[in-house]
Structure formats: C-alpha cells, structure tokens
Amino acid sequence: MMPDAVDVIGIARRFGSVQALAGIDLRVAQGEFFGLLGPNGAGKTTLISILAGLTRADRGTARILGHDVVGDYRKARRALGVVPQELVFDPFFSVRETLRIQSGYFGLRNNDAWIDELLHHLDLTQKADANMRSLSGGMKRRVLVGQALVHKPPVIVLDEPTAGVDVELRQNLWGFIRKLNREGHTIILTTHYLEEAEALCGRIAMLKSGRIVALDTTQHLLSRFAGLTVRVSAERLPDEWQHRIHRREGSVYYLGLESYMELERLLASFRGAGVSIDDLALAETDLEQVFLRIMAGSETTDETEPPVAIPEA
Amino acid sequence: MIEVVGSGWLTLLQKELLRFWKVSFQTIAAPVLTALLYLLIFSHVLESRVSVFNGQVRYTAFLVPGLVMMSVLQNSFANASSSLIQSKITGNLIFVLLPPLSPLDMYAAYVLGAMVRGLVVGIGVFAVTLLFVPGWFTMAHPAWAITFAVLGSGILATLGVIAGIWSDKFDELAAFQNFLIMPLTFLSGVFYSIHSLPPFWQALSHFNPFFYMIDGFRYGFFGLSDIAPGFSLALVAAAAAVLAGIALLMLSRGWKLRH
After folding, report:
1. Which among A38, A31, A20 is positioned nearest to A205, based on CA atoms?
2. Cα–Cα distance between B79 and B19 in angstroms, integer?
3. Of B4, B15, B100, the CB nearest to A77
4. Most buried residue among A191, B60, B229, B232 by CB atoms closer than 10 A?
5. DSSP helix/strand/coil, B164
6. Phi-psi region of A16 (alpha: psi -120 to 50; beta: other; left: phi over 0)
7. Which residues pair with A122 in a beta bridge?
8. Which of B7, B11, B98 sits opposite A101 (nearest CB)?
9. Residue A303 included in any domain
10. Nearest-CB residue to A77 (from B7, B92, B98)
11. Is residue A290 part of a domain?
C-alpha cells in the first residue's frame, strides 16, 4: 500500500497565548493537487513549518511519505520541497550558485542538467549568473520555486507562490507545476488567489484559527454552496432578503441565491417595495464565495462539532 | 546527477568558504592589515621598554605569535557568528534548515569553515610579519604551535556558532563580541607577559582560557612559556570538548533555530 504523501495526526502548536494549531488531522494522498486555504493567522504557515521541520509541534505526529518529520527527518526532508512565503535569498550568490548550493545540501552533485532545465522552465536562464540582489521580486520568487524543486522532491509545498508574480508568469509557473503533478509529484498549495485554487486543486482544506473548518473535494465544496451570487445596487434592500447578504459595500449588496428561480422572486420583492434597481449582475458560485461563507459560518460553529464532510480522498 | 547521501555538510562547508572568499578584502586582507598595524606600532613604542621571558626573546618577536593567534581567534569567531546571525536575520537560514542536514553536519560545516578563515588570516599575518619584521622568526616546536592554532580556531569557531545561534539581533552579537571575546583576547597576554602584571591580575589571567591558547602557541615558537604546555593543552582540549558539546546540544534541540 502506498504511503500517503502527507499524514498529519493531532498536530497542535501554541505560540505564547495563541493556539496556532488546535488539533489538525489531515491526509494527502500521493499525486494529489491539494489546496490549503484560510485567512492570515489561520495556521497554514505553521502547519507547513511543522511538515518541513522548521517548527516542532507541541503534540501529534506528521509524516511525509511515511517518514516521521522528527524521528525520521532525513528521509522526510529529502522527500519534501518547500517554497517559503517570504522572499528570502543569500546576497552573496548568483542564481545558478544558489541552485547548485541548494542541490548540494541535499547531497545531489553534478545536477547541472536539471538545474538548467529548471532555469528554463522558470524563465531564469538569462539571469542565471546574476546576483540574487539584482533580481526583481517576481524573479526572486521564481528562484525560490527552483530551490524547492532542485532535489526533485515527491512532495512539493508552495506557500503563496504567485504573490507578486505577473499574470503571464503565473500561467507559466502553474503550467510547470501542473506538469510536475501529472508526472506524479504531490502538490500542496496555499494561496489567497482563490480562483487559482479552484482551477488547480482537486481537494481543499480550509483552516480557521488553527482548526480545519472544511475538507472536501473542490467539486463537492462548490456544489454544496451551489447557486448564484447576485450583485445588486439599490437604495435599499427589501427586508426579507437581508439574511441573504454575503457582503455589503454601501449600496451594493452581494446576495446568495439558490437558483435562477429565486432571481424572479428577488426582482418581484424590489418591485413590490417600490425600490428601483440601479445595477444587477450574476455569477456562479465560485470558491471565493464558498470560502467566505464557510469562514463566516464557522464563526458560530460549536467547537466540538466536526468539520463538514471529510470523505476519503 | 549523483546522489551522495550525507554529503550535504560538504556543500554547507563550501558555501561558508565561498562566502568569506567572495569578500576576501574584508575578511582576510583587512584583519591582516590590522594585525600588521598593531605590530608596527607596538613594537616601535615598546621594543626598548618591555622585557619578556627574562630578555631571552625580543619584544617584537614575542608580539608576533600573540598577534597571529589573536587574528586566528577573532576571525574564527567572526566567521561563524556573522554567517549565522546574518542568515537568521535575513531569513535565508531556512535553506539550511529545510535539507536533511544533521546537527553534526551543521556544526562541522560552520566550525570548519570558520576555522579555515581564522587559520588563513593567521597564516597571512604570519607571512606579512616575516616581510616586515625579518629576522624575528624562530620555530622551536612547530607541532605545538599548529596544535594550539587548530584547537584555538576550533574553540572560537564553536563560540561563534553558539553566539550566532543565541543572538537575535546584531546588537546582541556585538555585545558578545565586544564584552566577552575582545576583552578575553586582549587580556590574554598577546601584548605583554602576564608576569609584568600585579599579582592579582596575574592570578586572574589564569582564569582566562585564551591565555592558555596563546601561551601554548608561543611555546611552539620560542620553547618558552608561562605555563607548562602539556597543562595548557589539556585545558584547551577540555574547553574545546565542552563547548562542542554545548553547540551540538543547541543544534540538536533546535534552540532558537527551529522554534
């Protein structure tokens, strides 16, 4: 039986008075493209740090491909590539030197063929001999991706990899990551670009205040909150629709409708109340809507209530 | 591509060496110049006024091994400590923490890298003094000199690792350097024989571990020392072992590196 790419059981971690992770159970199978979503402070980076051995959990176990991240750290770390969130670099070295050094840390020598390929896929060939200091933010981030991939890890974690990267480059980057995923690498991604998560991830976990509040396939999450989002601009909103508000910006209301049928009733309400509609737009529920609703919903969730639907991957 | 499991530490060592070599003006040439200046000024001022080893050795000759050793010690400390604290503060230490490097791997790479820097500077100072102060050179017991130089650089490199891990800010490292390392180095008999000190200060010097390193190193040159070299060796070796133990413990606990 193939070990899971990532197997987390009961991981908890406190920093001072903040419970960053309050008991996380998570399994990511090999070959998955997995999304880890949540607001800032939800515990995503803490979880990644624990997987990478950068931080130690207070309790619980975490395994990468069956190797305990503390007890069997050599094999665990060899199997894992991490793209950190911050743009860190060593100002003493060029791009190529940086990748060669990183490769060497993992015991991989004469890795220039793969490094050249990485430089090509990351569009860094021109800058191969440039000092890290002279690169733009987007380029530095690409080097970080290269450093995470230089040892061809079976499990790759990317923490906000496309922040500050322009649209064209983002497409190229994702094309490359998808290719790696097709070749069998497990990808775990955190991002605030929810349309990216929706497009790329097969399964998603949503974290809030150190707990998993949703864990399901992307399809299930989208269909659970199936429906429409209506953006309507009007002087006021008829009372019976107040509880459907997801978001409000002044006189612009974002409402959740279950179906197109409800649209007819909405318009009827406005007509009945004598309120004219200034603007109206429709959108299928996307992951961002799902995310916002789950995050808002989990506010009132009882802490002992299990998170929604956790089917086997 | 070749995978040599467990060879990561070699790359870390190479990186440490490359790091100081890339700025060799600052890391090697400058300390050599500083030591040379000390030599020229102090020998000029004190040559005729200070007697050491009952006049058996010229003051200038006496000064050189002290300066060589001081350079070795200070630069070994500086390399390891500055490398670690810079990595911590800029955040690029993450690239060393992510790979499967063991505490021993990290210890070996940082300490050996710093020892090489310290010893290269020491050799540089030594070579330059031969040029500027010809005729001073004697080497009674080279093996002792080398042993003390290597142990001394190892101890200070280890102290550099400890200080680099402990310090959270450059300020804290500077305090470690200026209020501990420097006083201990300067008050260890580099510039004077401890016999010239009042009895109280002489006795206090015996509690300074740096004194034994420099005294033992000087024995290698002149065959003369304030303390029996065997005793100095034992003490210095014990200090090296204890400090190595502390550094390895810090690294294996991940103290301040892995929260």
Report:
1. A38
2. 9
3. B100
4. B232
5. helix
6. left
7. none
8. B11
9. no
10. B98
11. no
Answer yes or no: do A87 and A198 share one domain: yes
pLDDT (tens digit per residue) in A203-249? 999 999 999 999 999 988 888 776 778 899 999 999 888 888 878 88
Residues A208 and A246 in one domain: no
What is the crossing angle of helices A112-121 and A95-105, to 10°?
130
Same domain flag for A126 and A167: yes
Is residue A116 domain-shared with residue A64, that is, in the same domain? yes
On whether residue A312 sits in a domain, the answer given is: no
Please indicate, yes or no, whether residues A177 and A262 belong to a single structural domain of this protein. no
Judgement on whether residues A255 and A215 belong to the same structural domain of the protein: no
- The verdict on residue A310 lying in a domain is no
Per-residue model confidence (pLDDT) at position A40: 86
Tell me the pLDDT tens digit for each residue of B158-207.
999 999 999 999 999 999 999 999 999 988 988 888 888 888 888 888 99
Q: pTM for the whole thing?
A: 0.88
Residues of chain B positioned with their CB less than 8 A from the CB of A108: 1-3
Q: What is the CATH number of the domain that holds A217?
A: 3.40.50.300
Q: Is B4 on the interface with A (CB under 8 A)?
A: yes
A100 and A240 within one domain: no
Does position B150 have pLDDT exceeding 90, yes or no? yes
Tens digits of residue pLDDT in B11-43: 999 999 999 999 999 999 999 999 999 988 988
**Gap from B189 CA to chain A (nearest CA, Å):** 37
Does residue A237 share a domain with residue A218? no
Number of Cβ within 10 Å of residue A275's Cβ equals 15
Q: Which of A81-95, A130-144, A281-295, B69-83 has the lowest mean pLDDT?
A: A281-295
Q: What's the pLDDT at A170? A: 85
Domain that holds residue A267: 227-284
Q: Which of A222, A242, A263 is the last residue of a domain?
A: A222
